[in-house]
């Protein structure tokens, strides 16, 4: 149990467990059917396990890696009982996630070396991008950080209005222009205001359109270039928000955005409403980009810092 020692508060762990309940129940229902009547992990069980992982939205490539790791253990240990499968799965998937996630953060953190720290948030419309920004702002503000929001999604009036609601709710300033304005101009104003106000962090919302990848690439590149006129190393982080409930579609969104811009971190939302929580494992592994945040509920506290040990412990703890 040392690998899975409790790092979260009991409230956060309870929220995580509840948020992953549908994914966990679905997974273990499939797994129990796969091993029924079997006492040892053999080729037939591994074939069944492969199907369970794929249908749990872990993804084919990542599933094959997991199966390969388990095959090595079975070969090495000679005999592995099916009752040990839960523990082995936890250990091997934690090991896989550790290749992308080197830290063990449990709280919202900002590097001391960058001020203001600039996070450009990307993702298609409807994934929970604006809500994620609002919840991040709340967490940073709660820590006493000075936060500035930038409404650079100027193609939808609703996006600006939604961000204003969050800014008012959290009590932080929002830099905005009218709908249809140049997004790069809003980003420039946001960083200028953040510097003038000695802010700790700037969260820049961007338009979420994938209908033309070339336009998206050009727009995001322009926003970056204009921000660098204020802060030469901005943005310090590009956070891609994905809707976990879309399963394999989230993989495609990740593929498109990583081609359009350099994505450095991920947030996977809406995990509480779906049985597709395995997508977190697959996306993290396949794109070699760390998942930084996960959304496990609608409450303002339900955006959590992703911790690989706590996630795996919640996902692969057998239901009672």
From TrEMBL:
| Keyword Nucleotide-binding recorded | yes
Determine the domain of life of the protein's source.
Bacteria
Domain annotation SRP54-type proteins GTP-binding: ranges: 290-303
Give one Pfam hit by family name: SRP54_N
List positions binding GTP. Answer: 123-130, 205-209, 269-272
Tell me what topology the record assigns in the membrane: Peripheral membrane protein
Q: Check the record and name the PROSITE patterns matching this protein.
A: SRP54
Uppermost EC category: hydrolase
Q: Which reaction does it catalyse?
A: GTP + H2O = GDP + phosphate + H(+)
Keywords, ordered alphabetically: Cell membrane, Cytoplasm, GTP-binding, Hydrolase, Membrane, Nucleotide-binding, Receptor
The main location is membrane
Q: Per its UniProt record, what PANTHER family does this chain match?
A: SIGNAL RECOGNITION PARTICLE RECEPTOR SUBUNIT ALPHA (PTHR43134:SF1)
UniProt family annotation: Belongs to the GTP-binding SRP family. FtsY subfamily.
The entry's function note states: Involved in targeting and insertion of nascent membrane proteins into the cytoplasmic membrane. Acts as a receptor for the complex formed by the signal recognition particle (SRP) and the ribosome-nascent chain (RNC).
Q: How does it assemble?
A: Part of the signal recognition particle protein translocation system, which is composed of SRP and FtsY.
Q: What is this protein called?
A: Signal recognition particle receptor FtsY
Question: What is the originating organism of this protein?
Answer: Robiginitalea aurantiaca
